[in-house]
TrEMBL record:
Family from the record: Belongs to the DegT/DnrJ/EryC1 family.
Superkingdom of origin organism: Bacteria
Name of the protein in question: UDP-4-amino-4, 6-dideoxy-N-acetyl-beta-L-altrosamine transaminase
Membrane found in the keyword field: no
Keywords, in A-Z order: Pyridoxal phosphate
Alphabetized InterPro entries for the sequence: DegT/StrS_aminotransferase, PseC, PyrdxlP-dep_Trfase, PyrdxlP-dep_Trfase_major, PyrdxlP-dep_Trfase_small
Keyword Metal-binding (UniProt): no
SUPFAM superfamilies per the UniProt record, alphabetical: PLP-dependent transferases
NCBIfam families, A to Z: PseC
Length: 394
């Protein structure tokens, strides 16, 4: 029985996140389908250029999904079997898996319980516990849309000789404020060697499957272009020989990680609404913040002016109880994330429960509640009322 807490009743399930597709989006894809190009047409370069402008970075390369972006990042940075790379346990598995694809070893550093982000102090301790050269790279994640302090991460990486890849899947449009007071947008290439984005439907910009890699480094960009398409080039300046007009060379072992033209057409159309979507996410977050400030049993993760709010995460003592109570009321909250080091695959590699106490304590309490631009004020009020009701019963 749903008690009379709010006059509003949802007519359909409310998920934690969802894509927003407009008639303009449909039109853009239809036009692309009717063009001469289904895969590598002019829309790909247009999307890359517009995305690069939006983020404020020199180079952007579209790929088939965010996981492919991470894989190519690891390949471009030449992760070798046995090399050690550090990431956070509170992320989607792909942030760690990309290292494994190349035969590297994944290490984790615990999170800061206030922000949910990798704790750079814990990273420093890990780095200092071994001789220099022991670790090769760091992959921090702008978890939930909160930007990692990449300036601090870069200093740490430089001190210990690591490369830096930012997993910005949650944070297009997000930023942190650097030591000079400047806003540094996620993926802008100022501090990270490479940044990656995902265009999975729950992310800010949806293309179905899709991803992007951004960088300011021309050397890495060149390498990525080659790796995206089988390691093949037709660029006459780069060929070892030239047998004629048909001639191409495969110079590296690459992949087919291309994003098709019709999906980039959707991406371009979605990108036009990125600012509006971000503004709506921030407005929803402000309303949640205000509501939960008055609910002692509910603790949201820390906010920040540059937060991009891919997720809105609260922490409660009885997480499973709340998850189930919300489901009964048509609200489909989700858990982000089950710590990666507790996955059977990573436990087989030697990681154990108890290795990262902050991540595990966070996991025991966290719940991502609805956060997406088309969530209406009424729906959000209903979500808040249902949480309030649950907390009151505790
Ligand atoms: C979604 C996501 C990815 C992977 O993106 P896909 O496009 O689904 O492959 C990587 N890292 C994080 C943090 C993500 O949320």
């Amino acid at each position: 029985m749903i008690p009379a807490i709010s006059p509003f009743r949802p007519t359909h399930p409310i998920p934690y996140g969802r894509q927003h597709i407009t008639p303009e989006d449909v039109q853009a894809v239809t036009e692309a389908l009717q063009s001469d190009f289904l895969t590598q047409g002019p829309k790909v370069a247009e999307f890359e250029q517009k995305f690069a402008e939006y983020i404020g970075v020199k180079y952007a390369m579209a790929v088939s999904n965010g996981t492919a972006a991470l894989h190519l990042a690891a390949l471009a940075l030449e992760v070798q079997p046995g090399q050690r790379v550090i990431t956070t346990p509170i992320t989607f598995a792909a942030s760690a898996n990309c290292v494994r694809y190349c035969g590297g070893e994944v290490y984790f550093a615990d999170i800061d319980p206030v922000t949910g982000l990798i704790d750079l102090q814990a990273v420093r301790q890990l780095l200092e516990s071994q001789p220099k050269g022991y670790f090769h790279g760091l992959i921090p994640v702008d978890f939930a849309g909160l930007a990692v302090d990449l300036e601090a991460a870069r200093q740490l990486c430089d001190e210990f000789g690591l490369w830096l890849v930012e997993d910005a899947a949650h944070s297009p449009g997000g930023f942190f404020t650097d030591s000079q007071g400047a806003e540094q947008w996620c993926g802008n290439g100022r501090f990270a060697d490479l940044s990656i984005f995902s265009f999975h439907p729950v992310k800010h910009i949806a293309t179905g499957e899709g991803g992007m890699i951004t960088t300011n480094r021309p050397d890495l960009y060149e390498k990525l272009l080659l790796l995206r398409t089988h390691g093949i080039t037709k660029d006459s300046a780069k060929l070892h020989r030239n047998d004629g007009g048909w001639y191409y060379e495969m110079q590296e072992l690459g992949y087919n990680y291309r994003l098709p033209d019709m999906l980039t057409a959707l991406g371009i159309s979605q990108l036009r609404r990125a600012d509006a979507g971000l503004a709506r996410r921030r407005a929803l977050a402000a309303r949640y913040d205000a509501a939960f400030a008055g609910m002692p049993g509910v603790r949201p993760l820390a906010g920040a002016p540059g937060h991009a709010y891919h997720l809105y995460v609260i922490q409660v003592a009885d997480r499973k109880g709340l998850y189930e109570a919300l489901r009964e009321r048509q609200i489909f909250a989700q858990v982000h994330y089950i710590p990666v080091h507790t996955m059977p695959y990573y436990q087989d590699l030697g990681w154990k429960n108890g290795d990262f106490p902050h991540a595990e304590a966070y996991y025991a309490r966290c719940l991502s509640i609805p956060m997406f631009p088309s969530l209406t004020d009424e729906e959000q009020a209903y979500v808040i009322a249902c949480i309030q009701e649950f907390v009151n019963q505790q």
